[in-house]
Amino acid sequence: MEFDMAVLPGDGVGPEVVAESLKVLQVVGENFRHSFHFHNGLVGGIAIDTDGTALTEETVNMCGQCDAVLLGAVGGPKWDDPQAKVRPEDGLLALRKRLGLFANLRPVKVLPMLVNSTSLKPEVIKGVDLVVVRELTGGIYFGQPKKQWRTPEGRQVVDTLAYSEAEIERILRVGFELARSRGKKLISVDKANVLESSRLWRQIAIEISADYPDVELQHMLADACAMRLIQHPSEFDVLVMENMFGDILTDEASMLAGSMGMLPSASLAGTPKGKTFGMYEPIHGSAPSRAGQNMANPIATILSVAMMLRYSFELEAEAQAIEKAVLVTLEQGYRTYDIMSEGKTKVGTKEMGDLIGQRVK
Ligand code: IPM
Ligand code: MG
User: Would the pTM of this model clear 0.85, i.e. be above it?
Assistant: First the structure.
């Protein structure tokens, strides 16, 4: 089959990890007889330097015409000035919004051979296999008004957490569907003891749970969830939550897996059933201090490509072939710096990409 992919390497280590994931994808193409056509675009700091904006119309349109988007990372110290008019992150947020990518799936799986490379006790993180479903195009990230102004008493500021019923319902349904395809347990995370938006969220969760009698719904306050994630992470299966809760709790959850360099993500424009348009990116950022040194762990991006095969191209066997190749490479003792431990073989970004590519069957 033939597929069109928008490729947006972005900043920092983005281009390096994207290059390795495309290498692995080429092997999948050869072994399974598919053609993947890559269409390059700019986003983030590099787009600011080139076009003066973090995301051009041209890039948005190009992405919209493809079957899926692969993104590296955006940002870096060069564009960090808090007074700056445009930020690399604006490009990412605009892409999410413009492409309607409301459902962000962030799986966290602790691999048995890496239980000793995290700062948590092996017995705590053993068996962790959860997915956070984060609402990605609404909530406090996008609500209006959002501004700063001056008053005689000093500066004033407002951010707004707004949701429509339809926005809450569609993301909760993604959570229920995913829970149905996994352990049949859904935890809806909110702050219903304080926020009105959370009270509606909880109410809608209860209402639509009637459509999923096979899924057990549980509500958890976001602060309690933060605690529980560190205390008993293996209890969790699927969690669903508002945009900023998801931002914060997925950084926390990523530490269960030892390194952010291991974790992929998918941002989908629909419920993951059949072929769904989506954007795929590693959870880690642009890591500017590691850029250009052949150091970054490409596994998060390679696993993001596996998610792309699964959700946007409906190529499950091919997705599993990549996941298997990653496992075998790690089992054979190869490690990038971030997951290195005694007795293992340290490799760079390119070597890790080559090793995984050679193991795709
Ligand atoms: C993430 C990132 C982004 C976010 C930033 C880069 C805007 O932290 O994808 O989690 O806050 O959503
Ligand atoms: Mg984040």
Answer: yes
